[in-house]
Amino acid sequence: MSPTAAALHLLNFMAPALGVSLLLACAAAVCFRGTPRTVGFLGQVAVGFAVGLGVCAAGLAWAGRDGKMLTYAALVVACGTVQWVLVRGWK
Q: 38 pLDDT band (50/70/90 cuts)?
C-alpha cells in the first residue's frame, strides 16, 4: 500500500468521529444557547473526536473490520453522552 493510500484509509477511518463531534457541537450551540459550558466549541469538538476515535478503534478491534453498524451506533451514543456532560444537560 502506498503512503497516499494509507493516509486516505486513516482519514476515512477518522471521518465519522470528526463528523459526529462537529454536528453535536453545532447542535449544542443552537439548542443549549445561554447555558454554562465546561469547555468552548473547539474543546467540545476535540473531546467528542477523541471519544469517537476511541469507539471506532474499539469497534475495529472487536469486530475485526471497520464500518460495522454497531460501531457507528456506539459512536453516536458515546459522543452524545459526552456532549450532554460537556454542556451540563442535566441542569
A: confident
Q: What is the domain range of residue 9? A: 3-86
Residue 79, classified by CB atoms within 10 Å of its CB into exposed (0-12), middle (13-18) or buried (19+), is buried
Q: Classify residue 91: in a domain, yes or no.
A: no
User: Which residues touch 4 (CB under 8 Å, ≥6 apart)?
Assistant: none
pLDDT for res 65: 83
Distances (CA, A) of 71 to 33, 76, 77, 89: 30, 9, 10, 24
Q: How many domains does the chain have?
A: 1
Distance CA 66, CA 58 (A): 10
Residues ≥6 apart with Cβ < 8 Å to 47: 21, 39, 82, 86
In a domain, 45, yes or no: yes
